[in-house]
Amino acid sequence: MNKQILLASRPTGFPEESNFQLVEKPLPRPGEGEFLVGASYLSVDPYMRGRMNAARSYADPVKIGDVMTGGVVGKVLESRHASYAAGEYVVGQFGWQQYAVSNGAGVRKVDPSVAPISTSLGVLGMPGLTAYFGLLEVCTPKAGETVVVSGAAGAVGSYVGQIAKIKGCRAVGIAGDDEKVQWIKNELGYDAAFNYKTETDYRAALKARCPNGIDVYFDNVGGPITDAVFSLINSRARIGICGQIALYNLEKPDMGPRLLQQILVKQAKVEGFLVFQFASLIGMGLRDLTEWVKSGQLKYREDIAEGIENAPRAFFSMLRGGNRGKQLVRISEL
Ligand SMILES: NC(=O)c1ccc[n+]([C@@H]2O[C@H](COP(=O)([O-])OP(=O)(O)OC[C@H]3O[C@@H](n4cnc5c(N)ncnc54)[C@H](OP(=O)(O)O)[C@@H]3O)[C@@H](O)[C@H]2O)c1
Question: Got the DSSP string for 126-181?
């Protein structure tokens, strides 16, 4: 049997258990040109909140009654596909379920001798590539510049600060608790950081930690943190909009200060990006990320919940900041 988690209803505000339904279906069988994957780890990610809404953003919503979308790494258990053999590990969008049948579209093979397979959903997967391309291709940091990162202790943010350091920049992080702040400073090499849940004046906190102003802002969160960063940008600053998690559970967009004049007078560049736009460069990104992980220059942390049944709870925890590094769910020991 195949345990699956379906989208049962669309949330209003913060999602709830009742928005999901756990079902058991017969094990799917691969047809000609297909293979069966047994899931090892499922990734739960902020973008999934958007897919629970009815409105299309950059991708179609999950339909009510469909298996929740999600990145999974797992093992090929049975293959009728010429390019995939039983026993190989693969990562793909196989969804919140124990088993999936695939024709290979959008699937990448994973070499378990390079790093633990779970990293293909984190530092050596979509979040790692988001940090890499978002920082290096969109924000184009130069050695000596100050790079501010929001969501700095999360999956993407924890890699961004380290890549900024590899490139010779000063990295300043903003995160949601003291342990995260200490971790990114003491273990990851961020030059300075603060806890946005205990600081009341974000502008003053940033000003104290960015004496030369802000050249690059890698934005994972949006909202009042981002408003404060904008007020301190230098001329020709580059702002990469990676995510706006502070807004994902709002029913109506909230109104902030109007900051375009600051962009104008500082001749700054603000650019939103999606990791998929760099698909043709994935080989280069994975090569660099793998080298940095192997050399110890790029550290990572994983927060692993147990069992498909706990996927919704792991997802809620990540949305609330309960995750320590990349939030994953272990589906089986395959
Ligand atoms: N553009 C792309 O292609 C792309 C790809 C991947 C991810 N993203 C975006 O990148 C961001 C980070 O994703 P991730 O996968 O690395 O997740 P993550 O950072 O590992 O987890 C989400 C984190 O968001 C923080 N958070 C939650 N609510 C917040 C709020 N109101 N204000 C400030 N921080 C809040 C929490 O950390 P604290 O404890 O610090 O609050 C939480 O740990 C998300 O916005 C995501 O949508 C974009």
Answer: HHHHHHHHIIIIII---TT-EEEEESTTSHHHHHHHHHHHHTT-EEEEEESSHHHH
Query: Tens-of-pLDDT digits for all 334 residues of the chain?
Result: 999 999 999 999 999 999 999 999 999 999 999 999 999 999 999 999 999 999 888 889 999 999 999 999 999 999 999 999 999 999 999 999 999 999 999 999 999 999 999 999 999 999 999 999 999 999 999 999 999 999 999 999 999 999 999 999 999 999 999 999 999 999 999 999 999 999 999 999 999 999 999 999 999 999 999 999 999 999 999 999 999 999 999 988 888 999 999 999 999 999 999 999 999 999 999 999 999 999 999 999 999 999 999 999 999 999 999 999 999 999 998 7
Measured from CB, residues less than 6 Å from any atom of ligand 1 are 45-47, 127, 130, 151, 153-157, 175-177, 180, 220-221, 223, 242-243, 245-246, 273-275, 318-319, 321, 323
CATH number attached to the domain at 2-120+301-330: 3.90.180.10
Rounded to two decimals, the pTM is 0.98
Q: 216 - beta bridge partners? A: 147, 238
Q: Identify which of 202, 220, 247 to mutate to test ligand 1's pocket (most ligand atoms within 8 A of the CB).
A: 220
Instruction: Report yes or no: 329 and 318 within 8 Å, Cβ to Cβ.
Output: no
334/328 Cα distance (integer angstroms): 15
Tell me where in the chain the CATH 3.90.180.10 domain(s) lie: 2-120+301-330
The CATH number that domain 126-276 falls under is: 3.40.50.720
CA 33 / ligand 1 centre spacing (Å): 37
The residue to mutate among 245, 326, 327, 328, having the most atoms of ligand 1 within 8 angstroms of its beta carbon, is 245
